[in-house]
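Schema walkthrough. Field components (list of strings):
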Amino acid sequence: MKRYKHAASGILVPLAALAFWQLLSAKGWVNATILPSPMQVLTKWWTYLRPLEAFNPAQGSYLKWCFSGELPQDAMGSLYRVLVGFAIGTGLALPLGLGMGYSKVVYALFNPLIQVLRPIPPIAYIPLSILWFGLGNPPAIFLISIGAFFPVLMNTVTGVQNVDSIYLRVGRNLGASRFTQFTRIILPAATPYIFTGARIGMGTAFIVVIVSEMIAVNNGLGYRILEAREYLWSDKIIAGMFTIGLLGLGIDTVMSRLSSRMLRWHRGLEQG
Amino acid sequence: MSAMDNHISVQGVHKVFQSGGQDVYALKAIDLEISRGEFVCLLGPSGCGKSTLLNAVAGFSLPSSGHIHVDGVPVTAPGPDRGMVFQEYALFPWMTVEQNIAFGLQIKGDPKAAIQAKVDSLLELLHLQDFRKRYPKDLSGGMRQRVAIARVLALDSPIMLMDEPFGALDALTRRNLQDELLRLWTELKKTILFVTHSIEEALYLADRTVVMTYRPGTLKRDLRVDLPRPRDVASPGFNALKKELSLLLMEEQNRHEQDEFRGAAVD
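Field assembly_structure (string):
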């Protein structure tokens, strides 16, 4: 019962905002080209979502047809780039971060370079990425991996460095080898940090995918809303923005569900 | 009696720390012989080096000079023959109760079935059956310390080292665990070296209570507690010993506090 009440109060503010927006449009207070009405946006959204052609079994399955609309294609394109870029960025950051956290030597070797590169926003790599990789998926994936790389790296280093030494003492007392210490104690003890890094990295990857599509790719949600601006299709811009928002929310929800499942032993900030 | 006849033998052990360019003796000329199956408590105010001595026997921090032998073999590193129970439980929070207890056996490389059987029997021994799938965060302090004890018992180590294991527990839980520990000690015939700052705890548990001095850490008094078990904390004999130890301990506590005041004045 209480849950429904909360859900109900959570919907109040969006409804009010929507009503205000509708009022603005209905009264003609703003130019419809600048700010279309909510209904107009919704209609556009539906058109954008729908398959372009009638279902034809000769061209493939029904499911494939369902996703053949412009918006599903864009969303899948963006999602694909995010996932591949994130996988590459994390795949590189994780082993390096574990090494830097564990070994003072590795840390001393890599940290100065990392500290110089880290403050460069991924977006600043755009010119170089186009020069190196041309247009299309490769430069976008390159940029996204950079965006995901640093948050995962920094959090992994901190996570390994902050492993409570008491756990290592217990490990030694129980006779654990260095390898066992690493895989059974250091790695799991650092996972809360690593997951935090992954979540931040995924957020950055999602920002970078939109920006890179605006510049280097000819499809995807970022490309689509920039394209819509050239035709003054503000309804499509807004529909695209909401899609970006929902997709981002979806990704973050999956990440947070995944991490609370994997970290159900974790106490959070409270000290144990 | 030579060192070989004793289970744990500490001879001429010094432990020196550098502090502000000065040598600070945490341990000075410690000689301590502990027989097989003996329950010895190290008693003293904080800063007297009792934990330092325990850590030296555990092999976590080796003495600056002197020798520690276990079964006649010099101690050079930590090992599963000297299981340690820490004050702060130190259970692995990412492992369930079962997994925590099994960890040492997995390291040893025991077969799966043997590990499972051992874990089951330890869960039963410490009344933890209903908690086997729980994570440490869901357990009370007393339960966690039971798991920590089970984890050490799994190793079958002849020696148990305990660093103020019950210090953070409330009085009733503490008494329960003390009784539990005495039961295990009688059943399993372990040699126990137990650090505490509670006089009553030392007298309730130990065959011998060793009082340490505050800086430098030396042995002030080695007292054999000959009271019959189970011990009655309200008996005249118990109280006489308690009074005796209180006086000894207060002297050291006063020196400790004077030292702290001096330190504060220098700051």
